[in-house]
TrEMBL record:
Protein name stated in the entry: Dihydropyrimidinase
Domain Amidohydrolase-related: 50-452
Record family assignment: Belongs to the metallo-dependent hydrolases superfamily. Hydantoinase/dihydropyrimidinase family.
Keywords: Hydrolase, Metal-binding
InterPro entries hit by this protein: Amidohydro-rel, Hydantoinase/dihydroPyrase, Metal-dep_hydrolase_composite, Metal_Hydrolase, Metallo-dep_Hydrolases_sf
Any one GO molecular function term: dihydropyrimidinase activity
Gene3D superfamilies xref list: Metal-dependent hydrolases (3.20.20.140), Urease, subunit C, domain 1 (2.30.40.10)
Entry cofactors: Zn(2+)
Top enzyme category: hydrolase
Annotated SUPFAM superfamilies: Composite domain of metallo-dependent hydrolases (SSF51338), Metallo-dependent hydrolases (SSF51556)
Length: 472
């Protein structure tokens, strides 16, 4: 039988090599890779294009329902449209747990909302309250349904675990063979800094970074690794922002500890200068870990180049600027009492933490990485999909160009020069931290399981066409 689709004449990039070939697709999967494949029912020309596996964003917050009633503005329909337009065909977001609730009683209806996704999706289960009921009954049941990874926070009032609780989660993951992902910052250190800054009258967005300097991240990274080492449980350290934390990961890797590191485009391109923007605009750049001083971006790139950090996720967590201005503490991603200032804007500690970036993740990484010569194409593929696929149980299906894999393909125009503007993005958020950012290289066609999902910025995939990815 002939191919449903042939992507013809492109330069293919995988995690290992770059070569010229056509890709033949049948029933949503790659059926053949080779030169001069016979005609398909549909033909897409990839002449002059670089063809990579679809991006896998293993860390994004979509429509997350928080215990305080705050709802993420990003819906599954909008967030997944943005993902596809930015070359990401699958993502892993989070099943919330509300402290004091079982998993089943947290965020009711969340999985039903996810059915609206246009991209393929999976979940990490957040654990905020590791009771025996949760660890002994609910987590094993979830794992059996293909939710094979847990997420824990070492900071944030409503989310954080004590070391004792973290150890119990690690032990459960070990027993069930699950991966554990960790947000590493020292909660008490941050609280102590926030109090001192507020007492000194420092309330501007930049004080967010002063409240959580690199040492706060480095300490928690070291502690998470040490506790994981004790239990002999692999972990993935989320959103590494600085050399100090990356160095702890590198040291542990060198002694054979199973620890992996992730970073995000914000830690490769943005800095304190952004938090200092006037008219409260700095609030657009409040994320945790915080943006660092000028110069730190290059040190994080070095840790990509030496292999310490193997995944670049978005940590997409969008709160509109309009929301941040008037809704202190929205979504639970803040710390300490919510203080309003004379003009009604919140003090730095009550600005909801997070930046939107699910659509810009890969264009920024391609441009700053591949186009500027910091990384080669196979490294780009490893960072954008392949490494996360192996780490989270999607190897062979996602992140690879090989017969049998899902036909998730991105056709990159390596010469396209664009300036990022929020008006052209597909997310539901009213700003992008990369407004006015110039990039070279753009995903002109995104194919998800053999269907053209985006062509020249137009999203063709319908809500509900994404599939839940059970992982094994
Ligand atoms: N950091 C953020 O900036 N937002 C969401 C959660 C997180 O850890
Ligand atoms: Zn986090
Ligand atoms: Zn996050
Ligand atoms: Zn603009």
């Amino acid at each position: 039988r002939q191919f449903d689709l042939v992507v013809r004449g492109g330069t293919l990039a995988t995690a290992a090599e770059v070569f010229e070939a056509d890709i033949g697709v049948r029933d949503g999967r790659i059926a053949a890779i080779g030169l001069d494949l016979p005609a398909g029912t549909e033909e897409v020309s990839a002449k002059g294009m670089i063809v990579t596996p679809g991006g896998l964003d293993p860390h994004c917050h979509i429509e997350e329902l928080s215990a305080d009633g705050g709802v993420h503005e990003e819906s599954f329909a909008s967030g997944s449209a943005a993902a596809l337009a930015g070359g990401t065909t699958a993502f892993i977001c989070f099943l919330p747990q509300w402290k004091g609730h079982s998993l089943a009683a947290s965020a009711p209806g969340y999985e039903r909302r996810a059915l609206q996704s246009r991209a393929d999706y999976s979940f990490h289960q957040i654990i905020t309250d590791p009771t025996p009921e949760v660890l002994e009954r609910e987590v094993p049941a979830l794992a059996a349904r293909g939710v094979q990874s847990l997420k824990v926070f070492l900071t944030y009032d409503p989310l954080r675990l004590t070391d004792a609780e973290f150890l119990r989660v690690l032990a459960t993951a070990k027993r069930l063979g699950l991966m554990v992902t960790v947000h590493c910052e020292n909660f008490d250190a941050i609280g102590w800094r926030i109090e001192a800054l507020l007492a000194a009258g420092q309330t501007d967005p930049i004080a967010h970074a002063w409240a959580r300097p690199p040492v706060v991240e480095r300490e928690a990274t070291y502690r998470a690794i040490a506790l994981a080492e004790l239990v002999e449980q692999p972990i993935q350290v989320f959103h590494v922002s600085c050399e100090a934390a990356a160095a702890e990961i590198a040291r542990a890797q060198a002694r054979g500890v199973k620890v992996w590191g992730e970073t995000c485009p914000q830690y490769l391109t943005l800095s304190h200068a952004d938090l200092l923007k006037p008219d409260f605009e700095g609030a657009k750049f409040v994320c945790s870990p915080a943006l660092r001083e000028a110069g730190e971006n290059e040190r994080v790139w070095k840790r990509i180049q030496d292999g310490t950090l193997g995944v670049v996720s978005s940590d997409h967590c969008g709160f509109s600027f309009a929301t941040a201005k008037r809704a202190p503490g929205a979504g639970g991603y803040g710390q300490g009492g919510a203080t309003a200032r004379a003009d009604g804007t919140p003090a730095f500690n009550a600005i909801p933490n997070g930046v939107p970036g699910i659509e810009t993740r890969l264009p920024v990484l391609f441009s700053e990485g591949v186009s500027k010569g910091r990384i080669d194409l196979p490294t780009f593929v490893r960072l954008s999909s392949a490494n996360a696929a192996s780490l989270f149980g999607l190897g062979g299906r996602k992140g690879t160009l090989a017969p049998g894999a899902d036909a998730d393909l991105v056709l990159w125009d390596p010469d396209a020069e664009r300036t990022i503007h929020n008006g052209a993005l597909h997310h539901a958020i009213d700003y992008t931290p990369w407004e006015g950012f110039a990039v070279k290289g753009w995903p002109s066609i995104t194919i998800r399981r053999g269907e053209v999902a985006v062509r020249d910025g137009e999203v063709l995939a319908a809500p509900g066409s994404g599939r839940f990815l059970a992982r094994g």
